[in-house]
Structures are given as C-alpha cells and as structure tokens.
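User: Could you go from structure to sequence for me? I need the amino acid at each position, not a summary. Structure tokens:
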C-alpha cells in the first residue's frame, strides 16, 4: 500500500482559477497539492494567437498583481481596451463607453487563456509549498470527518484537510460530492477565431446584438481581434465548414464595415453555451470554485472573473480560519465562503441571462424597448459611468486579493 502524502489542501484543476487558487494559498504558506490532467505549455514566444481569450476586469488584474503573476502576462501579451461600442443590428440603438469619461486608463484587458495559465504556473514554480501533480487524474475520493483522501491514477495517495474542485463545468469533484447542477442550454454555440481586419480597432471592444445572438470583436494587436460569434448550433456548424473566403464574407455581412474589410481568419472552433449553477458550493471538507460551481453566457466575458472572485473569497476565508486556529475543512468555515459568493454569483448570472434573452429576441416590442434603452442610456452620463464602474469589477466590498497591491 502506498504511503500517503499529507497537505493542507488539494486543488483539482490547474486551469486559470485553480492555478490562481494554488498561488494564493502557496503565498500564504499552506502546503498545497495541485492536480492537473495536462502539463501546461509554457513555451514562448508564439506567433499565432489562441482563439480562447478572456476579458479581464481591473479587479481580476489586481488579483494577478497580488499573486505576482501579472508581469509574466504582460511579458507575453495583454491587450488593454479603453472603449466599448455596443449596438443592435435590428434598429438604431447604440451605446459608447470610454474609460476617459471615468478618468481610468482602460476598462480591462483581453488576454489569451493560455497566457494566463502559463503565467500562473511560472509563479507556482517559485512557491516551494505548492506541489504540482501533472499530468495526473483523480481516481478515488474518500472524505471523512477527519480528512480527505484522494487516490490518483498512478496509485499515489494524497491526504488533506480540504479538497477544492476547480475542474470546470464537468467537475469530477462535484460529481463525487453528489451535488446537483441545475441550468439549461441556450441552444447556441459560440464560434471563436482570430480575425485580421483592415482598420485599427482603436483599443475598443465591439459588440453587435442580433436575433440569433451577439457577435463580439475583442481587440488584440492593432488590426487583429478575437471574435466570439454566438449563434444557433446549425449555423455554427455551417460557419465552421466554410472556407476562409466564404467565412470572412459571412462575418463581414453580419458585423458591417466598422473595422473595414475582414482580411484573414485563423483556426475556428465552437463550443455550446449554457447556464448552470450547482445547488451547493460546499460540503464536508469540500468546496467548489469557478465553472465547477457555475457557468454563464459569455456575452459580457464575466465567467473567469466570477471564478477569480470565488477563489479570492475562499482564500480569504481559509486564511482567516487558519489565524483563528480553526480547521480549514470545517463546515462552519466553508459556509462563510458560500454565503459570501453565492448571492453575488446568482445576481450576475441572472443579469447575464436577462441580457441574453432581451437582446436575442426579435419580438417588435422588445426590439423597440432595447433600442430605446441603448439610445437613452448613451445620453445619460451618470448611468454610463455606473456601468463602467461595474465593468471594472471595483465593488466596494472586495477580497484582499482584488484590491490594489500595497506597492501601488
């Protein structure tokens, strides 16, 4: 029988949220085991952009800065955006946001998911209290009142006070806990790709709403954007099957000429869109963060930011418990995290679901209402400024990691 290795906590899933959690707890000198199925590719430079990107808020930027991972992201590539243009293709509704109106240098950054993960893993190498098991797959989980026991696919046995599931929408940890995940499919797929265009994007995110779903252009370098085209599964399949010329023609027809001619497109992919929310975030010696707990529509790019909010809140909760001499796996401790995050996440999920249903609808009354709403909001500066502050993620009650670093 293999001898068990002992840790304070085990994190299953070494993607953006799980790796950030490992950095946070390693920084706080807890002994951490991070389990990831694939070894991340840390090689750089890379000529081609990855087609999966995230819109990182200012609050999430502060998280990465406090984890000492932000410089590694900047050294690879991050793309700040200062403006947003949003319009309804079925009418004249339009709204424009500019960070200069709230005296901010930008509204956020577009960053490739692989850049975020690689930077966090480079930081993990500098933390002796974090032990990375990759590639590795969890095979058996046993939880008692006293401890967590996790067996890996190679037979190694890990023990800890707490296990954290950061293993995505099909979370193995959530399944082992028996937590139900409720939600629904949007009957939409998101087609993603990197597109070259004739004119500069002007450090602006462009989003067009239509009855079949939103189409977003997210700025990368001056004449390159990452697109997220939400549409029916049937249309998505057709778009993936088109040759490059035909795809660019369809994209031009849908988006218009704001960025001039569509010139090039990289590798295309599509993934289904759904809303999901687990009934519980915590159980005995177990907690869920990120997509393991919730999934939302990507129209506002808030998925990873919500996950980083979970991670930051859980890190603060565990640190406070440790200082008070409490066991970090106790239910009383974990419920504090669940109470802190569940209401905020439900509110954001409800808002995104409402936006999706309002804007992906061709009923004349709703079409008139949303166009009027966009136009009126565009003329009322205080409301626009409130929207921008919300987009920055700078709410008044935030975790310690989501506040400006002390050296700033």
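Assistant: Here is the amino acid at each position, in order:
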């Amino acid at each position: 029988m293999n001898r068990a290795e002992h840790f304070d906590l085990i994190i299953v899933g070494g993607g953006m949220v799980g790796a950030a959690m490992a950095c946070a707890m390693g920084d706080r000198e807890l002994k951490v085991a991070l389990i990831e199925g694939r070894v991340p590719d840390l090689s750089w430079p890379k000529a081609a952009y990855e087609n999966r990107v995230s819109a990182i808020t200012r609050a999430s930027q502060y998280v990465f800065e406090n984890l000492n991972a932000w410089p590694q992201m900047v050294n690879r590539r991050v793309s700040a955006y200062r403006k947003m243009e949003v319009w309804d293709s079925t009418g004249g509704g339009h709204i424009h946001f500019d960070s200069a109106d709230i005296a901010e240098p930008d509204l956020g950054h577009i960053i490739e998911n692989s850049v975020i993960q690689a930077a966090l893993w480079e930081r993990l190498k500098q933390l002796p209290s974090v032990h990375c098991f990759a590639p590795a797959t969890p095979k058996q989980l046993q939880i008692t009142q006293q401890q967590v026991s996790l067996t890996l696919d190679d037979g190694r046995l890990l023990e800890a006070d707490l296990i954290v599931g950061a293993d995505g929408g099909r979370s193995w940890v959530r399944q082992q806990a028996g937590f139900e995940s409720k939600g629904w499919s949007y009957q939409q797929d998101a087609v993603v790709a990197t597109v070259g265009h004739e004119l500069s994007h002007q450090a602006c995110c462009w989003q067009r709403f239509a009855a079949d779903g939103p189409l977003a252009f997210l700025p990368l370098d001056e004449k390159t954007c990452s697109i997220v085209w939400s549409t029916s599964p049937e249309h998505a399949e057709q778009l993936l099957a088109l040759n490059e010329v035909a795809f660019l023609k369809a994209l031009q027809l849908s988006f218009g000429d704001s960025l001039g001619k569509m010139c090039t497109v990289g590798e295309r992919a599509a993934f289904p869109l759904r809303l999901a929310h687990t009934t519980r975030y915590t159980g005995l010696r177990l907690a869920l963060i990120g997509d393991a707990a919730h999934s939302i529509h990507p129209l506002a790019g808030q998925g990873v930011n919500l996950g980083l909010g979970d991670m930051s809140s859980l890190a603060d909760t565990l640190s406070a418990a440790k200082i008070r001499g409490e066991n970090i796996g106790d239910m009383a401790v974990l419920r504090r995290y669940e109470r802190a995050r569940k209401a905020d996440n439900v509110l954001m999920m409800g808002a995104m679901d409402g936006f999706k249903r309002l804007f992906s609808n061709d009923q004349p009354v709703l079409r008139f209402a949303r166009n009027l709403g966009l136009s009126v909001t565009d003329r009322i500066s205080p409301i626009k400024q409130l929207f921008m502050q919300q987009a920055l993620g700078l709410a008044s009650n935030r975790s310690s990691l989501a506040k400006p670093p002390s050296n700033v």
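One structural detail worth keeping in mind: The chain has a mean pLDDT of 88.
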